[in-house]
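Justification of resources, computational component.

The compute hours requested in this renewal are based largely on the per-chain cost of generating structure records like the one below. Each record pairs the submitted sequence with a full structure-token output. That output is archived, and it is also reused by downstream analysis tasks.
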Amino acid sequence: MIRAVIVMNTQGKPRLAKFYDFQPAEKQQELIRSVFGVLSSRAENVSDFVEADSIFGPDTRLVYKHFATLYFVFVFDSSENELAMLDLIQVFVETLDKCFKNVCELDVVFNFNKMHTILDEIIFGGQVLETSSTEVIKAVEEITKLERASNTISLVPKSVSGWQAR
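The structure output for this chain reads:
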């Protein structure tokens, strides 16, 4: 099971944090600080896989990818494959790139809802739903269309609103 997905910048500021097992807000902040402490102290030429037993408890691993100014971190237990999680990070980043045309930190900050929608299409409840960025893009576009349509729906028929204007 995937236990958490964290996107943070190189200063340790979380841009997206989603925990799939309940953690109080204070504990989440502590875990994010601990993860950043581990990542920031690692050399550039070492593996992207980290044993996270000391941070998240026994049988927990962490895989991350560093892109530009962002760390993409997945925390998971031993039932998940490390290489599959690394590939899932790649799918997540590719999908973000397709949605935002060369994603950057500002896209993540100003499009928070879309980030969560994309992540929810890939992972839900700690389980992987979709590994194809093309399928995720289709689902996100469909959700966006529905949101736009629901924003334009008028609850008052035009004939009634025209009657009030007279």
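Residues 99 and 137 are 7 Å apart (CA to CA). The two ends are 61 Å apart (CA to CA).
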